[in-house]
Amino acid sequence: MSDDDLTRIDLNLLVVFSALIETGSVTRAAERLRSSQPAVSRSLARLRELFDDPLLIKSGKEMVPTPRALALKGPVAAALGDIRRLFKPAGFDPAIDRRRFRVSSTDYGVLSVLAPVMGELATTPNIEIAVDPLSDDDHQKLASGALDMVIIGRTPERPELYRRRLFTERRACLVREHHPITRDPDVMAGRPPTIDACLAWPHVVITVLGDLTGSHVARQLRRLDKRRQVAVQMPYFSVAPLLIEQSDALLILPERAAKRFAEARGLVMFEAPDVFGTFDYWLVWHERARRDPALHWLIERITATVGDPACA
């Protein structure tokens, strides 16, 4: 049967066929379908023409199906089931449905957002998360479907992007144990050091998307007409702490990451100067996926695990 032939078929006829084969009566089929007997009779006539078979034959007060009708019963029921599922609202069951999520993030995002939900994801073996590094064209990848979600520390401005704020993050300083700055009076008192105290030491600088001059810290330093000595510039949050263990370099990074590295590697963490401020951390996805139940399942799991209720 060609596509042209299919366009001439009224799918409602399959519904009528199903009612007739199950009730064995035009009257009862009409009642079930909330239709009239003449309308059901006309549909039966069209079905007989379509299948070139009587389908139902009068036998006393009942109508009995022909062999052709009995052969059609299962396929018609299956076809109607498929059609109903087509129009059923999309759902997602992580216990049985398979999904591979493509996420763009820094290693800080993996550490602070994805790592805490891995325990729950371990119970959903059909779920896979593939992480790509952040890039300047992530918004295009979201639009094309190459990415499902971006985890990022700056507010997305494009109107086609949806977002959820997870938490507000402070910046912290990290140095080796016994670093001279740990004897700074402010640091010893549990206060942030002055900006000049921080700038007295070389810095290991983490640059997202490779932009040394575009970071918030760099902009604040320019605003204050301050300069820092950059010892090493790199895009890796997780590797940067290794470079300060055997040197007097200082590292400024998000507080959540700083706490983990301080505990894991015996480093010293203290608050960064207030001028460096805070930033919000976001989940970002595209308008095309706003009705994707699988993606929203993941968003809700992340929010429930690491989201700050004050940011909801």
Automatic annotation (TrEMBL):
Q: Which CDD domains match?
A: PBP2_Nitroaromatics_like
Keywords in alphabetical order, please: DNA-binding, Transcription, Transcription regulation
Ranges where the HTH lysR-type domain occurs: 9-66
Which is one GO molecular function term here?
DNA binding
Q: Name one Pfam family in it.
A: LysR_substrate
The keyword DNA-binding is annotated on this UniProt entry: yes
Q: What domain of life does the UniProt record list for this protein's source?
A: Bacteria
Q: Which family does it belong to?
A: Belongs to the LysR transcriptional regulatory family.
Protein name (record): HTH lysR-type domain-containing protein
